[in-house]
Amino acid sequence: MTSRTTVADRLAGALGAVLGTSELPVRLRGWDGSVTGPAGAPVVAVNSRRALRRMVWAPGELGLARAYVAGEMDIEDDVFATFAALRTAGRLTQDGPAAQTTWRERLSLLGTALRLGAIGPEPAPPAEESAVERRGHRHSRHRDAAAISHHYDVGNDFYELVLGPSMVYSCAVWATPQTGLDAAQEAKLDLVCRKLGLTEGTRLLDVGCGWGSMAIHAAQRYGAVVVGVTLSEEQARMARKRVAEAGLTDKIDIRVQDYREIDDEPFDAISSIGMAEHVGRAEMPRYAAQLARLLRPGGRLLNHAIAWNAGRSVVRPDSFIGRYVFPDGELLNLGETVGFLESVEMEVLDVEALRQHYALTLRAWVDRLEENWDAAVAATSEGRARVWRLYMAASALTFESGEMGVNQVLLQKRGGGQHPPLRRDAWL
């Protein structure tokens, strides 16, 4: 007697075609309840034919991501173990060039969809997908504002649940893995202040100031006078509220302003933490020149940015990250970033790699999202919460593997008769 081919069996072939493997790395549950795949492997549930239809129309990372964001596919086990298993197939990458499905694999997908009744028009993307690419020229001021709004204007309540009281949305600095997220974020802010040599009355520009955490820390702990700029209206509104509650309105000015429009130099120090990723390679010479122009001779700049390791840099517009998380984002490698910054009369004082710290930070954010899942969904949407869960968990694995890094580059503008310390002791 021959065994019946189940929905899960057919879906296994479809997923294998997308992943480019004949050995499925996860266990699959079909919409009819059937299960197939290696025993003990993480379980992925395909809840509807619509998920398969998305794979037919977008056979790769984007089709799978759309199905997951829409709730047509689900993860039944640990999110990190599941994504780690899927990545072993080799075709799912955080970004950068990815192998494409062959025509044979596409025909196999189409045949599976025919057998399972999943043929039909292309489903509309989930509402959480970005339409920024239709907003004019790439990295124009209008389009950059739209890209920032897509990522950051999703509700301050949602970000509070994920980030916690620190409201810092960049890599923390951990003394040990047991440090705790809030303490690690405070340590990062303090490290930046020490690297910049902030003292009472120092005029600091915080480019991409987020919800004001760096500005508040610099003003409270070091007496700095701070201008913070962001393109996010929601961030600025909350940052101003936090500044007022801290009694620092005389020391901190929060603006909704493009960094290219700042004209009230000079500043004694500039911090750019997690902002350069939005600038774009074509705009990097202008970014470097503008920050150098705004800085007084002898002033310091700290540029904290994610980098592709091994020379990769482009965020593909058809990738999950490009469509759902960072539209128009571009990640340069460390050498490129240093080259642009050195070309404008800036001397490199220090470079610190924090790759492992970002993996710990992302895992902590995922933990907070999972702990507050119902509240996070209520604060934004289930699709948006799914986007952040997928993006943060996958990113943690990418940092752990060494594919991505994050670096703090400290520079000093030439002139001013000021010499940096002989060793790092001044800020360690």
From TrEMBL:
GO terms for molecular function: methyltransferase activity. It comes from the Bacteria. GO terms for biological process: lipid biosynthetic process; methylation. Keywords: Lipid metabolism, Methyltransferase, S-adenosyl-L-methionine, Transferase. PANTHER family: CYCLOPROPANE-FATTY-ACYL-PHOSPHOLIPID SYNTHASE. Belongs to the CFA/CMAS family. This is Class I SAM-dependent methyltransferase. It comes from Modestobacter muralis.
